[in-house]
TrEMBL record:
It is found in: Membrane. InterPro entries: Thioredoxin-like_sf, Thioredoxin_CS, Thioredoxin_domain. It comes from Salix udensis. SUPFAM superfamilies: Thioredoxin-like. GO terms for biological process: protein folding; response to endoplasmic reticulum stress. It comes from the Eukaryota. Residues 401-410, 420-429 have a biased composition (Basic and acidic residues). Residues 12-135 form the Thioredoxin domain. Its main location: membrane. One of its GO terms (molecular function) is protein disulfide isomerase activity. This is Thioredoxin domain-containing protein.
Length: 429
């Protein structure tokens, strides 16, 4: 009897030890994956963040220590996120299978389903960003301080939706559906100060917040799922959207036409005044997206729509294709009474008083596919020039062709990459 009891205790101890030792919270370093363990790792853990890298890639080398810092912290979350890496330059078949087309390629696998990651890469911001994927679908807030802490913890990379006086079940389905794109919460208890802060005067109310743009909008219903979903989809972006690589990726999934205003410089006082007027127009015309871009901020994109040929600011309507519409009689916006001019532009567009123009650059999808930017063109031109030079040298001195020339090409590519500016979301190599 004593022996049996000892055996049971021993077995229970082994089970407890095994359970504790195999928990995801024990994996506090970056895992190295290949063909032999990739699928089993993705299947074993609910959340796996994978860095597909190349050993020679400058930007991959820069990212590696950030992942080393983030790995133990993400492993300690209530729902742990495992960080792993794959040498895609070595395991090419695995890389092709997972559609890796540049380095680094970052993906988070949630219950085995991959989502490409375009967020920040510094450890602190990376941790905050990834927490979004393991947070509750809907967070219940029961005090002013809880609301404040939720907004602060959410950060600035996703829009935030707070339902004041709304039951959690009303938005739960939509919160699950759009979890990858926004934070969702409901506030069950709050003061009049919060109502003043977010500028609403009755409940139930849904408020969307864009912390990075200091922008928010109010929705008073109806709260049937159809109408609530339309509001959520229209508010993934702020009322007036600055056009850049990140917002273009979001606009790819938006079916609305873009009313695009081209400015000299977004940061000028007169531009900020116009942007404020655009927000008012956007609030009254939710069937359209209102965007703006400064020539100083992104000349290549602005000049696609004839920015050099027209007095700025100018407005056009674009659906993301290789053509855009200009409104006859509204080629540019004067500094006085801009609200009336914008109204006139919109009226002309809706009445069909437009002319079609061809853009001089790629379509919306084309811009998204060219995320690596013009720097890659320089690299390609450099490599082609080197190739021509090598061929020329090889005709005169055949014995010199080989390792030395390969080193020159690799060194040239690396130098170009090292000198380029880093932009979150890019695959630079």
């Amino acid at each position: 009897m004593k022996t049996t009891r000892s055996s049971l205790i021993l077995i229970l101890s082994i089970i407890i030890w095994a359970t504790e030792s195999t928990g995801a919270d024990k994996i506090n370093t970056v895992l190295e994956l290949d063909e032999s363990n990739f699928d089993s790792t993705i299947a074993a853990y609910d959340f796996v963040f994978v860095d597909f890298y190349a050993p020679w890639c400058t930007h991959c080398k820069r990212l590696a220590p950030e992942l080393d810092v983030a790995a133990p912290i993400l492993a300690e979350l209530k729902k742990p996120i495992i960080i792993a890496k794959v040498n895609a330059d070595k395991h090419t078949r695995l890389a092709r299978k997972h559609e890796v087309d540049g380095y680094p390629t970052l993906k988070i696998y949630m219950h085995g389903v991959p989502t490409e990651y375009y967020g920040p890469r510094k450890a602190e911001l990376l941790i905050r960003f990834l927490r979004k994927f393991v947070a509750p679908d809907v967070t219940v807030l029961n005090s002013d301080s809880a609301i404040r802490e939720f907004v602060e913890e959410a950060g600035t990379h996703f829009p935030i939706f707070i339902g004041f006086g709304i039951n959690e079940t009303v938005i739960s389905n939509l919160a699950i559906k759009y979890k990858k794109k926004a934070w969702f919460s409901v506030a069950s208890d709050f003061s009049d100060d919060v109502m003043v802060q977010y500028d609403f005067d009755k409940i139930p109310t849904m408020v969307s917040i864009h912390p990075s743009y200091n922008d928010h909008s109010i929705f008073y219903g109806p709260f049937e799922e159809e109408f609530l979903e339309e509001y959520i989809k229209q508010n993934f972006l702020p009322l007036a959207v600055p056009i850049n690589y990140e917002t273009l990726k979001i606009l790819k999934d938006d079916q609305r036409k873009i009313v695009l205003t081209i400015l000299e410089d977004e940061s000028e006082e007169k531009s900020r005044k116009l942007i404020k007027t655009l927000k008012a127009a956007a609030s009254a015309n939710r069937d359209l997206v209102f965007g703006y871009v400064g020539v100083k901020q992104w000349a290549e994109f602005a000049e696609t729509f004839g920015a050099k040929e027209t007095k700025l600011p100018k407005m056009i309507v674009w659906d993301g294709s290789e053509e855009y519409l200009s409104v006859i009689g509204s080629e540019s916006i004067e500094e006085e009474d801009q609200g009336s001019q914008i109204s006139q532009f919109l009226a002309g567009f809706r009445e069909g008083k437009t002319e079609r123009n061809s853009i001089s650059g790629p379509s919306l999808l084309g811009y998204i596919k060219s995320l690596i930017g013009v720097r890659s063109v320089y690299i390609i031109v450099f490599l082609v020039a080197m190739f021509i030079l090598i061929r020329h040298i090889s005709k005169e001195e055949p014995l010199t062709v080989g390792t030395r020339d390969r080193d020159q090409v690799e060194h040239g590519t690396s130098s170009e990459a090292e000198s380029s500016d880093y932009r979150p979301g890019d695959k630079q190599d």
